[in-house]
Design brief:
Layout lengths: L3 H11 L2 E6 L10 E6 L6 E5 L4 E6 L2 E6 L2 H14 L5 E6 L18 E4 L3 E6 L29 H16 L4 E11 L4 H11 L4 E7 L6 E7 L2 E7 L4 E6 L1 E6 L4 H13 L1 H19 L8 E10 L3 E11 L6 H8 L7 E2 L1 H11 L10 E6 L4 E5 L3 E4 L4 E10 L5 H10 L2 H8 L1
Antiparallel strand pairs: 1-2, 1-10, 2-8, 3-4, 3-7, 4-5, 6-7, 6-18, 9-17, 9-21, 10-11, 11-20, 12-13, 12-19, 13-16, 14-16, 15-16, 18-19, 20-21
Helix pairs in contact: 4-10
Length: about 425
């Protein structure tokens, strides 16, 4: 089998617009297959600026504004593919501010969405390996197995945390995902950084996207473990599935410590309450687009283990109604409830008021959508973003409830950045 990394090196060097959906760190539920694609000059890509409310179509070296809503424009492109008998497939990301009807600050740094329609696609099957089962018991640097931390929370995070607590106690929100961004220098070659990241942190929604286009430059380096939405056919229609993550603990340094951490995550009342609130939110979201009575929770609060952390993961599933297009369903679900909190709209207003910087692509979705109604996207977490200038941005955060502890929440946010920072240091 040809190593996809070798192919990607050549593709990235020759094609300004390309991507790699990396199946090397996949699980049984996500499939161990890589997809590598690239665009010729006359192929189409889309970029979106939430600040200008402009969707730009890039083709043949030209850029043309074609709409003001990326969901609508992408849906129209898929409709055109379907009408022409094609099986068009688009690959890209939706940033946190991709829905103009929701309170989210535009990203002044990178496009709020980028989508590519490649004419060249190669697929690679990955054999089973350590990344598919147990990535290894490696404690995160700077974290202890007890969830401790090495630095106190800074004043701005403490102030934001206190304000969120006021809203929680006032009943404005039941759980709020409080996040922040870090900018760090790194190697000028984003692919080199990504190759180190995938070795340090294999994940089901790992991938690399390059859109090296004037006025819309963006690189996304993802090692996300979380499914935003899968839409697939089962013979009787389309089924939509989402797998929210709420609850994170570090891996243990020994087998005994690791099992203790796993047990703590599975049984801690606070983690379980956080997860249940997001499951309820997603059941509500899916009920808007699914057949009555079809929404179910086949897995509630299962523990999944990754290279640096254990995660508490649930699965929520439903059957899409025939009158709901796939892009329309993704719009209703967007952004992921695990990245907002509950209730979604009011909580987004709360975090928008306290977070110091726009989320950008962080907390959005990354993956593919197809003209036949299928789609598969992960949540943009554990990811690096850059304009290709040697500066990288990462987002981190966690769910806050009335029972949350400032020091503990801060330590969890730092735990989630460990492997990203190590990839940059390499």
């Amino acid at each position: 089998m040809t190593d996809p990394a070798h192919v990607v090196r050549e593709v990235v060097a020759r094609h300004p617009r390309c991507f790699w959906l990396d199946g090397g760190g996949a699980r049984e539920w996500s499939g161990r297959r890589s997809i590598v694609g690239w665009l010729d000059d006359n192929d189409v890509s889309l970029s979106y600026s939430a600040a200008r409310r402009e969707v730009v179509r890039h083709v043949g070296g030209r850029a043309e504004v074609v709409g003001d809503d990326v969901f609508d424009v992408l849906g129209a492109e898929l409709d055109a593919d379907r009408a022409s008998g094609g099986r068009g497939q688009w690959f890209g990301y939706l940033g946190y501010a991709a829905r103009p009807d929701l309170p989210a600050a535009p990203d002044p740094w990178l496009p709020d969405a980028v989508w590519l329609r490649p004419s060249h696609v190669r697929r690679f099957d990955h054999p089973p390996g350590p990344a598919a089962s147990d990535p290894g018991r490696v404690p995160a640097a700077g974290a202890t197995t007890g969830g401790g931390h090495t630095t106190p929370p800074p004043a701005d995070y403490a102030a934001a945390f206190a304000t969120v607590q006021e809203h929680l106690h006032a009943g404005d929100t039941y759980e709020a995902n409080l996040t922040y961004r870090l900018d760090r220098p790194g190697p000028p070659d984003p692919l080199a950084v990504y190759l180190r990241l995938r070795a340090l942190s294999p994940a089901p929604y790992a991938g690399f996207l390059q859109h090296d286009v004037d006025g819309a430059r963006a690189w996304l380096l993802s090692s996300s473990p979380e499914r935003f939405a899968l839409v697939d056919h089962d013979g009787a229609g389309r089924v939509v599935e989402t797998k929210p993550i709420k609850g994170t603990t570090p891996r243990g340094a020994t087998a005994a410590d690791d099992e203790e951490q796993r047990h703590r995550l599975a049984t801690d009342p606070r983690y379980r309450a956080e997860n249940l609130m997001i499951v309820d939110l997603l059941r509500h979201d899916l009920a808007h687009v699914c057949e009555v009575g079809s929404v179910e929770v086949p897995a509630l609060m299962a523990v999944e283990s990754y290279a640096g952390v254990h995660q508490l993961v649930s699965t929520v599933r439903g059957r899409l109604r025939d009158d709901v297009a796939t892009l329309a369903a993704l719009r209703v679900l967007f952004p992921a409830g695990s990245m907002t909190g509950a209730p979604k709209l009011r909580t987004m207003q709360v975090v928008e008021a306290v977070e110091a910087t726009p989320r950008g692509a962080y907390a959005g979705a990354f993956g593919w959508v197809a003209a036949d109604g299928r789609a598969d996207l992960g949540v943009v977490i554990r990811s690096l973003l850059t304009r290709g200038d040697g500066v990288y941005r990462l987002g981190t955060g966690g769910g806050i409830t009335v029972h949350s502890d400032l020091d503990g929440e801060w330590a969890e946010t730092r735990l989630k950045t460990d492997r990203l920072l190590r990839a940059l240091a390499g």
